[in-house]
Automatic annotation (TrEMBL):
It is found in: Cell membrane. This is ABC transporter. SMART domains: AAA. GO terms for molecular function: ATP binding; ATP hydrolysis activity. Residues 5-251 form the ABC transporter domain.
Length: 338
């Protein structure tokens, strides 16, 4: 059996809360599902991204996979174990870290918190003491181990939440915006830890609004919109899928008929869209849009035609463009196929 979390047609409909208690439920339309038939695979040993705009259903999916929320219909397995029937066993193998949430107790010290959660996860006592020390060192809290959490800064609490999420040495780690609100160096350390865990065989599911983080860590990304899968692929594949274009902007020192002809000829030959105007200093400026980066060709052509380049700037398509386009596409009748 390949080790993975596999979901089949997972659906979650939250009960409607906008009905006053005296009004009968019968006539109202049911609430739209927050997750609507989601089938995905989160393999062991890699980081898999789950992306979508606000309200797409990412947190709901993570809460179902962490057994905190029961699916309305559909099923999921974790290394072959059933999400609902084997929830107790699954809880030992899975953990979740949610950014901005402090899933630790203020009245307890850092060490006491980890001891408490370790017991909850049935970590053997003989292992637990050493594990707590390792984790406190990992998140840079060894010096504050015996301080009460109420005296901690926000960043320290978040770091302790990360240690809590790793206490049971999970086989699968569900990360919901894990670096939200973290200082850049701590966020970078956390990314390094996540990459290392994946290399060691842990299966990680990551949601993040920091797309650079997603591009850096994720082997594969699932994009969801309104609870449904709209696309799947490597970050590079998704970026290419949307056919967003490279934009090359070139500014020349002075107007010249042959440089102008050269730019227009290149655009005609490649099928690039071209617009011509002038900058604030009235120097000729051209903007070319094409699926490929034409900067090299453009520079060579212009120089060969005697033009002097004062500025050349390329804007490649980004994963952010892709997510926006995919989410947009999902609202149109013919959605981008997954
Ligand atoms: N407890 C709840 N009760 C009712 N509806 C909910 C509840 N939690 C979430 N929803 C709804 O379910 C949908 C999906 O929400 P969810 O939080 O899973 O999205 P998300 O992709 O995590 O969004 P975000 O990026 O904003 O965190 C939204 O329409 C949201 O309003």
């Amino acid at each position: 059996m390949t080790r993975a979390i596999v979901t089949h047609d997972l659906v979650k409909v939250y009960p409607r809360r906008d009905r006053p208690w005296w009004r009968p439920a019968g006539k109202r339309p049911p609430a739209a599902p927050a997750v609507d038939g989601l089938s995905l695979t989160i393999p062991a040993g890699q980081v898999t991204g789950l992306l979508g705009l606000n309200g797409a259903g990412k947190t709901t999916t993570i809460r179902m996979l962490s057994t905190l929320l029961r699916p309305t219909t559909g099923s999921a397995t974790v290394d072959g174990l059933d999400l609902v029937r084997d929830a107790r066993e699954i809880r030992r193998r899975i953990n979740m870290i949610a950014g901005g949430e402090r899933m630790v107790y203020a009245r307890l010290t850092a060490r006491e918190n980890l001891w408490y959660f370790g017991q909850l996860y049935d970590v053997p006592r003989a292992r637990l003491t050493a594990r707590i020390d390792e984790l406190l060192a990992l998140v840079g809290l060894s010096h504050a181990a015996d301080q009460r959490v109420e005296q901690f800064s926000k960043g320290m609490r978040q770091r302790l939440s990360i240690a809590r999420g790793l206490i049971n040495e999970p086989s699968y780690l569900l990360l919901d915006e894990p670096t939200l609100g973290l200082d850049a160096p701590i966020a970078r350390d956390l990314r390094a830890v996540v990459a290392e865990l994946a290399r060691g065989g842990v299966g990680v599911l990551l949601t993040s609004h920091y797309l650079a983080e997603v591009e850096q860590l994720c082997a594969e990304v699932h994009v969801i919109a309104a609870g449904r899968l709209v696309a799947r692929g490597t970050p590079a594949e998704l970026t290419a899928l949307t056919e967003r274009q490279h934009t090359v902007e070139i500014t020349l020192a002075a107007a010249g008929a042959s440089a102008d002809q050269a730019v227009q000829a290149l655009a005609a030959r490649t099928g690039a869209q071209v617009t011509a105007d002038t900058d604030e200093q009235l120097r000729p400026r051209y903007v070319l849009r094409h699926r490929h980066d034409l900067a090299g060709d453009l520079a060579t052509t212009v120089v060969a035609a005697g033009g002097a380049i004062v500025r050349l700037e390329v804007t490649p398509p980004t994963l952010e463009d892709a997510i926006l386009a995919l989410a947009d596409g999902a609202r149109q009748p013919e959605a981008v196929a997954a």
